[in-house]
Amino acid sequence: MSSGSNLNFLKRELISMGNHDSHMKDSFHIQWHITNLCNLRCQHCYQDNFSREKDLGWPELKRVADHLLDAIQEWDKMACIHLTGGEPLLKPELFPLLDYLDQLPLIDELGIITNGLLIDQEVVKKLSNFPKLRKIKISLDGADAETNDSIRGKGNFLKTIQNLSWVRDKNRFETILMFTVMKGNFRDLPAFLKLSQELGVDGFIIERFIPWGRGRERRDDVLSKEDWKELIKTLLELFSIEEEDAFLSYQAFQINFNHEEPELLGAPCVIGKDGLCVMPDGDVFPCRRFPISIDNLLNDSLKTIWEKSELLGQIKNKENLKGQCGICGIEDCRGCRSLALSLTGDYLEEDPHCWYQTTSL
User: Do the Cβ atoms of 202 and 257 come closer than 8 Å?
Assistant: First the structure.
């Protein structure tokens, strides 16, 4: 594959990881879960409510969008918004919302995160009507049917790959697979890379399983610190890289195939920096895997919510972090706050997956 010199770390939230022209304004990244309704019950899902009961109607969705964009304008930034669920293609208001967002000058990019099972030729044609909708991200959690379907349900591996062909044939979108790594599939990484190239997608994202919702029942499938280090070592070997500690501040990765050689991108935790998550009822989470609401966008502008949040203020200050994270010399790294919250109950605790050790506590 590529040499170490071809390694590119991109400090940007994974919901919109990609190239960014230097002359453009800074981007703010929003992952918007527009519904909890879903046609799957994946073993690692961070949801436990799969109904429409918290869904907003069109007037409320528009108000949330306006409260988001008011802040983006005041901050003199551009918005990258990726819509997901549940399954976003089950949300009747998806296309009116895309139409509204696509026309707003403050929107730089739109994306869809889906399980892919409802994609067909007609859906792809409708999605193609929105110029700013550039990315479609499709979840797949194994390099073969046995592994994927043990997590996502019987028959879904083949269905997802078949439906993926509709997106690829259109050649209109950047198509990215979403690979959530657990004990049962993280050693599939080399095979998953090969499969992704064979499928002709533009790349894939590697994210860790963090046990919330249904995933609490599979807590034993969370990677150990040793598993995570092994996966990092696999990446090092695949890309002929020697600088192991260079990976410490990155909480997820993306492999792109849009260049002569595959390109590796990394993303740190961006909680409190330039991204957040919006839930189906308008609640704002620091990220989807950090299920503590800091307020609701039906009530206030994002700017007010962002600036008054004591929680975000705590996390931004590295001195508040505990254990090794509080004294770590890697300046830009704060570990994965979501993983700390899920596994220890305290979002200020040290990152349970970090193997870096300072000289003393």
Answer: yes
Tokens of 329: 């010399």
- Indicate whether this model's pTM tops 0.85: yes
Cα separation, 231 vs 233, in Å, equals 5
Type of residue found at 335 = G
What's the chain's length in residues? 361
Which contiguous run of DSSP H or E holds residue 285? strand 283-285
Q: Which long-range contacts (CB under 8 A, 24 or more apart) does 93-98 make?
A: 93/34, 93/57, 93/58, 93/61, 94/34, 95/126, 96/58, 97/34, 97/58, 97/61, 97/62, 97/65, 98/127, 98/130, 98/133
Mean per-residue pLDDT, 147-175: 96
The answer to whether residues 149 and 155 touch, using CB atoms and an 8 Å cutoff, is yes
If you average pLDDT over residues 87-101, what whole number do you get?
98
Residue 295: exposure state from Cβ atoms within 10 A (0-12, 13-18, ≥19):
middle
Q: Residues 274-299: what's their mean pLDDT?
A: 96
Angle at 38 between CA 36 and CA 42, to 5 degrees: 105
Give the confidence band of 269 by pLDDT, cuts at 50, 70, 90. confident
Print burial letters for 96-125: b (CB count within 10 Å at least 16), e (below 16). Answer: ebbebbeebebbbbbbbbbbbbebeeebbe
Rounded-to-integer distance, Cα 276 and Cα 260, Å? 33
DSSP, residue by residue, 186-239: GGGHHHHHHHHHHHT-SEEEEEE----GGGGGGGGGSPPHHHHHHHHHHHHHHT
Q: Please tell me the distance from the alpha carbon of residue 117 to that of residue 138, in angstroms, as a whole number.
A: 9
Query: Which tens digits make up the pLDDT trace of 173-182?
Result: 999 999 999 9
**Is there a contact between 173 and 184 (Cβ–Cβ < 8 Å)?**
no
Instruction: Give residue-wise pLDDT tens across range 8-67.
Output: 333 333 333 334 443 468 999 999 999 999 999 999 999 999 999 999 999 999 999 999
Supply φ then ψ for residue 291, to 5 degrees. Answer: -80, 60
